[in-house]
Amino acid sequence: MIKLVEVTKKYPNTIALKDVTLEIEKGEFVFLIGSSGAGKSTLMKLLYREESPTTGKVIVGGVDVSKISNDNVPNLRRRMGIIFQDYKLLPNQTVYDNVAYVIRTLGMPSKDIDERVKGALKIVGLSHKMYSKPTELSGGEQQRVGIARAIVNGPPLLIADEPTGNLDPATSMEVMEILNQINQRGITIIVSTHDHTIVNHFRKRVIALDGGEIVRDVEGGTYD
Ligand SMILES: Nc1ncnc2c1ncn2[C@@H]1O[C@H](COP(=O)(O)OP(=O)(O)OP(=O)(O)O)[C@@H](O)[C@H]1O
Ligand SMILES: [Mg+2]
């Protein structure tokens, strides 16, 4: 599903990733950990082509993402769901419209859109808030909208960069349970986090970065 081969990413004054090689199989759940500045977000940005590697190869779903043209980046991103720490919802649109937004741009019949949006909202347990605005929701509910939006197009891969970074411990656990359930449907999930409790609770594959290098990669791992 994902393959990084000897990837280095340099910014003007920083080497964010150093010779990173890794493979993630279809259906895996991976925690990406490491202190602030370790390179977690940079690694994720390479996957959705927000950044390109300085050297090395980034392959997602069989496609070398550094080789696709800018015109094809939206196409790439439609095959993955991206979840952000700060949700990035449209504040003046309803929950329903936030989730429907991307598939509407694909010109799907409105009956199909309706089915998919309601299905995604059901998975995250927000069917009853369909017509609320994001400002009327708690942080945890807003992130669940973010998850519904990410899965509505049925992507094989979800990338979540500190999805619980703004949430309290109990709400973080609820959000992570939802991601775990989605993973059990066969969707590959990569989550970056600083949350020890969550990593230690779920015991998934843990990839630790330090100074842009992979320093640990274990199945069923803990934070430390
Ligand atoms: N656009 C940029 N321009 C220059 N340097 C950058 C840029 N983005 C990130 N960096 C640098 O690259 C390094 C890795 O940053 P990155 O955002 O990947 O870290 P992170 O592990 O996600 O940290 P955090 O836990 O704080 O989110 C840092 O030293 C950062 O300052
Ligand atoms: Mg980050």
Explain how this protein is built:
This protein has 7 helices and 10 strands. The strands form 2 sheets. Strands 6-7-8-3-9-10 form a 6-stranded mixed β-sheet, sandwiched between helices. The protein starts with a strand and ends in a 6-residue tail after the last strand. Bound molecules: adenosine-5'-triphosphate (ATP) and magnesium ion. Adenosine-5'-triphosphate binds next to strand 2 and helix 1.
Write the layout of secondary structure elements.
Blueprint: E1 2-11, E2 14-24, E3 29-33, H1 40-47, E4 55-60, E5 63-64, H2 73-78, E6 80-84, H3 95-105, H4 110-123, H5 139-151, E7 157-161, H6 169-184, E8 188-192, H7 196-202, E9 205-210, E10 213-218
Parallel strand pairs: 3-8, 3-9, 6-7, 7-8
Antiparallel strand pairs: 1-2, 1-4, 4-5, 9-10
Q: Runs with pLDDT <50, length 5+?
A: none
**Can you name the CATH architecture?**
3-Layer(aba) Sandwich
> Portion of residues in helices?
25-40%
Ligand catalogue: adenosine-5'-triphosphate, magnesium ion
General form: globular
Largest sheet: 6 strands, mixed
| CATH class category | Alpha Beta
The tally of domains stands at: 1
| Beta fraction | 25-35%
Instruction: Give me the number of helical elements.
Output: 7
Structural class of the helices, strands and pairings?
alpha/beta
Mean pLDDT figure:
97
Amino-to-carboxy terminus distance: 27 Å
Number of strands: 10
CATH topology: Rossmann fold
Compact summary:
This protein has seven helices and ten strands.
